[in-house]
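Morning F.,

Quick status update on the modeling queue. The single chain you submitted on Monday has been processed. Sequence for confirmation:
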Amino acid sequence: MGNQPENQSPYRIGSLERALLVVDTLAEVPDTSVAELAQLLGVAKGSLFRHLKVLEANGYVLQSPGTKRYSLGPRLLYLGHAARQQLRLPEVAAPLMTALRDRFNETVHMGVLSRGEVVHVEVAPSTHPVKMAAEVGDRTWANVSGLGKVLRAWGGDDAVEFVLRERGLPSLTDRTIVERAALEAELERIRSRGYAIDDEESARGLRCVAAPVRDGRGEVVCALSLSSPAERLSLEEAEEASAAVIETADEISRRLGWGGERAAGGRRRRKEVV
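Structure tokens below.
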């Protein structure tokens, strides 16, 4: 390509790249002011403000009327759903989820994180008359469910701050974690052992075990859980089932291109603004 540098694409649009970096940055550092974004990206506030207004008009970012701070907008929920469909995540996961369900005859859920909540994107329900099964599209709080605690555990250094800012730590049962230090310790424990347990924290009579699913870069993109009425799944049995849940989650990860090397944190490296 003549004098084109080896690693630089000839098809570059500076303003478009800056807008995309704004979206990327808000995904990692939500609820951010114009001044903070300008400092993170190394751009002038005036130029950044114009980008934000275009993104806001098209639904890609939202500005809080009270604080004037920016976060990702609803348009990205649609794009995320479309991307998951096109990346065939549910299609890749469904047969493995069904196999895990059949092994225990308990419900298997897959969820992703959105605005401090878990959104269920695939479900393989138990065949028992009494079951613990959410519908695709259902949302649960991220600080109480097994899926949510896994996604928070690998959500980066600001995971606890985001939970506190978005939802706080409301008590759903007498076993819900309601103190920051306890949540931080729980997330560290989850990272250490590779799975999470919801021991009747989100609802009395519900117990589940969850594990992370990674993409080709090793980043945690969703979580997988086995959910059961507590009377059919003791805490000891949930701990024992963790190996099967991790094995299934890892196999889904491999089919998404993961090479098998666990990477704690999973935070994306910041790109430079062109």
